[in-house]
Design goal:
The chain is an alpha+beta fold. The chain has 12 helices and 12 strands. The strands form 2 sheets. Strands 3, 4, 7, 8, 9, 11 and 12 form a 7-stranded mixed sheet that branches. A 5-stranded mixed sheet has the order 2-1-10-5-6.
């Protein structure tokens, strides 16, 4: 008797979740749409990949990747013109309209260092890493700690595939991520009161969860700079500040990393940072979230709607705050 596939609770039919332009002649439609929006000043980065020697230009042929139909969503995708112009990227400024400033990010050459408690440390060029991986597209919710949300079609590969390449030692308990540090191109990094470079971390158990995803692209093409090109993390059950952008270094360690925002304000931003409507931020409620583009306010779901996939990671932590 054939196995019966039961989709996750949060999954819906693809046609209900995905606008037609995403799956019907997607590349041609988005290319034309992107050029038009750029002319209107809505999408700061559209053709840079073809005109400058960045990482995107060297990997464009890999897109669009095949969609993994296991990962879908229960709400409409956020238009690229919206998600691409409303971004947190403190390296380029503390406001949301940093997309134009982020175009200064130089993504070639871009080497990624893998070190720490691994069998053989390595440094690998971004393009070489991507070509070694099987890229796929996943539809993910994204929930910011500031109580707004969006839904994005990310392209990339499971974080577990990177772990298989790195072959961490049994003594490794955490994965630490670190971004670039170049105040010459990133004006925000000239603000010395911030603990640059940006750092984040997860447990090995979280890193090997199927949802943990290393992102190389979005909307059927290589990742735009404001999204964290050329390589970022997506942890859809956690608040967005855990999904570190523009990764330069991945370290395996037996010490719990202290993240960028945790170092700044440990009473407000902690290691776990799991989406939890019952644990308010000290300065605002997390009961509801504002959906970008529509402005609709909807109830926040525990683990951002991914409880079925990740709740087991936190057994034994019931007395601890899953937010902090």
């Amino acid at each position: 008797m054939p196995a019966i596939h039961r989709p996750p609770r949060w999954a819906v039919a693809e046609g209900a979740a995905t606008p037609e332009l995403v799956f019907a002649n997607r590349r041609a439609v988005l290319a034309g749409l992107g050029l038009a929006l750029a002319g209107a000043g809505l999408v700061p980065r559209v053709v840079k990949a073809q005109t400058q020697g960045d990482a995107a230009a060297r990997t464009t042929f890999l897109y669009p990747a095949q969609r993994n139909r296991t990962y879908t969503v229960d709400r409409a995708l956020t238009p690229e013109a919206v998600s691409g112009s409303y971004n947190n990227f403190y390296e380029f400024g503390s406001h949301k309209q940093i997309a134009r400033a982020a175009q200064a990010l130089v993504t070639h050459p871009w080497d990624i260092e893998v070190d720490g408690l691994v069998e053989k440390p390595l440094t690998i060029a971004f393009e070489d890493l991507v070509r070694r991986m099987a890229l796929e597209e996943r539809l993910y919710r994204h929930r910011c700690v500031e109580a707004w949300s969006m839904t994005v079609p990310w392209t990339g590969f499971p974080l577990s595939a990177l772990l298989a390449l790195a072959r961490p030692l049994s003594s490794a308990r955490f994965v630490r991520f670190e971004t670039f540090n170049d105040p010459g191109i990133a004006g925000g990094q000239k603000q010395v009161w911030y603990p640059w470079p940006y750092v984040e971390g997860v447990t090995m158990e979280e890193a090997t969860n199927d949802l943990a995803f290393l992102v190389t692209g979005a909307y059927g093409k290589p990742l735009a700079e404001q999204f964290g090109a050329p390589l970022r993390l997506a942890l859809p059950w956690k608040y967005g500040f855990k999904s570190i952008k523009s990764i330069r270094r991945i370290s395996f360690t037996d010490q719990q990393p202290i993240g960028f925002w945790e170092e700044i304000a440990a009473s407000e931003y902690g290691f776990w940072a799991n989406v939890n409507p019952d644990v308010p931020h000290p300065r605002w409620s997390q009961v509801e979230e504002r959906v970008l583009h529509t402005g609709e306010r909807v109830p926040t779901q525990l683990y951002n709607g991914y409880a079925e996939e990740v709740a087991g990671l936190y057994k034994g932590l019931e007395s601890a705050s899953l937010y902090r």
